[in-house]
Amino acid sequence: MPDTLKQSVIDAGKWIDQQGWCPATGGNFSVRIDAKHAWVTASGKHKGALTPEDLLQVDLKGVVIGSEKRPSAETLLHMALYGLDADIGAVLHTHSVSSTVLSRLVDGDVLTLRGYEMQKSLSGNTTHDAEAAIHVFDNTQDMPELAAQLHQRWLQRPLQWGFLVRGHGLYAWGRDMAEARRHLEGLEFLFACELEMIKLGQR
Ligand SMILES: CSC[C@@H](O)[C@@H](O)C(=O)COP(=O)(O)O
Ligand SMILES: [Zn+2]
C-alpha cells in the first residue's frame, strides 16, 4: 500500500520544483508521523525527483531510524519545529530567489508584511489591514545554534507560518501538508510583492 505521508512529500517536491523554488539540491521537506517522529528528506537529493526511499524516519533529536542514509543537513530545524508546536504537521524549506534576496534586504530580525490581501492566505489572518511578522535569522552552518536561536525567539512569542534565513531561504509550515503548501505559496507571493516594492523605491 502506498504511504500517503511519504507521497505528500514527493508531490510537494514536484510542485515546488515546478515553481523554481528549490534549484539544484537546495531545500528539504518533512511530514510528521507521530508525536516524536517525522519523515525527512535525505541529504543531497534533487527535491523535484524524490522517491519513497529518499524519505528517512527521524526522531525529535534528528536521529535516523532504520536507515544508513544521511538525513537533510537541516533536519534539526525541522525537528525543532515539531518539538516546539505539537500542531505542526509538515515543514517545507525552499531556496527561492525572492526569499533569498529579500531576506538580505531586511534590517533587523523581523520582516513586517502589511497591506496585502494575500496575507489572508496565512492562517488566522482575516484582513489586509493587520501586520504579519516573519522572523529573520542570520544564516549559519551550525544547525544546533540555529535551532537554539529559534527556540529562544519562540519562547518570547511563538512564530507563525514561517521564517527566513538570511541569504538562504524560507521555512514554512502548517498543520498538515496542504496548509504548509498554502503558507509557502502565500509567503512566496508576498515576498515577491515586497521585492517589487523595493525595486520601485517604495520601501
Ligand atoms: C545546494 S546546497 C543547500 C544546502 O546547504 C541546504 O541549505 C539545503 O537546503 C539542502 O540540504 P540537504 O542536506 O539536501 O537537505
Ligand atoms: Zn537550505
TrEMBL record:
UniProt: Zn(2+) binding residues: 93, 95
Domain annotation Class II aldolase/adducin N-terminal: ranges: 7-195
Known EC number: 4.2.1.109
Catalytic activity: 5-(methylsulfanyl)-D-ribulose 1-phosphate = 5-methylsulfanyl-2,3-dioxopentyl phosphate + H2O
One cellular component term from this protein's GO annotations in UniProt: cytoplasm
Enzyme class: lyase
Molecular functions per Gene Ontology: methylthioribulose 1-phosphate dehydratase activity; zinc ion binding
Pathway of action: Amino-acid biosynthesis; L-methionine biosynthesis via salvage pathway; L-methionine from S-methyl-5-thio-alpha-D-ribose 1-phosphate: step 2/6
Highest taxon listed in the record's lineage: Bacteria
Cofactor(s) the protein needs: Zn(2+)
Keywords attached to this entry: Amino-acid biosynthesis, Lyase, Metal-binding, Methionine biosynthesis, Zinc
SMART domains xrefs: Aldolase_II
Cofactor note: Binds 1 zinc ion per subunit.
PANTHER family the record matches: METHYLTHIORIBULOSE-1-PHOSPHATE DEHYDRATASE
Family the entry assigns: Belongs to the aldolase class II family. MtnB subfamily.
Function: Catalyzes the dehydration of methylthioribulose-1-phosphate (MTRu-1-P) into 2,3-diketo-5-methylthiopentyl-1-phosphate (DK-MTP-1-P).
Protein's recorded name: Methylthioribulose-1-phosphate dehydratase
Lineage: Bacteria, Pseudomonadati, Pseudomonadota, Gammaproteobacteria, Oceanospirillales
